TrEMBL record:
Species the sequence originates in: Paramecium primaurelia
Protein name in UniProt: Mitochondrial pyruvate carrier
Similarity annotation: Belongs to the mitochondrial pyruvate carrier (MPC) (TC 2.A.105) family.
Biological processes annotated in GO: pyruvate import into mitochondria
Function noted in UniProt: Mediates the uptake of pyruvate into mitochondria.
Keyword Transport: yes
Matching PANTHER family: UPF0041 BRAIN PROTEIN 44-RELATED
Keyword line: Membrane, Mitochondrion, Mitochondrion inner membrane, Transmembrane, Transmembrane helix, Transport
Membrane topology, from the record: Multi-pass membrane protein
InterPro entries registered for this protein in UniProt: MPC (IPR005336)
Location of the protein in the cell: Mitochondrion inner membrane
Recorded coiled-coil stretches: none
Amino acid sequence: MASKASGIFWTWVHSSTGPKTTHFWAPVCNWFFPIQALYDWNRDPAKISKEMQCVLVCYSSLFMRWALRISPQSYILFCMHLFNATLQGRLLIRRLMWESSQQKAIEDKPTN
């Protein structure tokens, strides 16, 4: 049994998507984008860059499709971009909700 598992492992290591290729290491390194988004999860919305979040959502949305169109398909890259687009989108929503509440507070402020 261990021999079969070992054979499967070494087949993967030497495959076109194994750790000897950029098809493995590029998606692994890209995981730092969603890790940073998790780090920013509770950040003050005033410090979240609306423009950067828009760019990251668009970037990940485009590369999700690309990850499935290349040969060999990169499911690691697809999952990373799906996770990143979701997290960055949530940060963008937080920023937009904060801006809306700030605008409402200015409008509701009584004038003397």
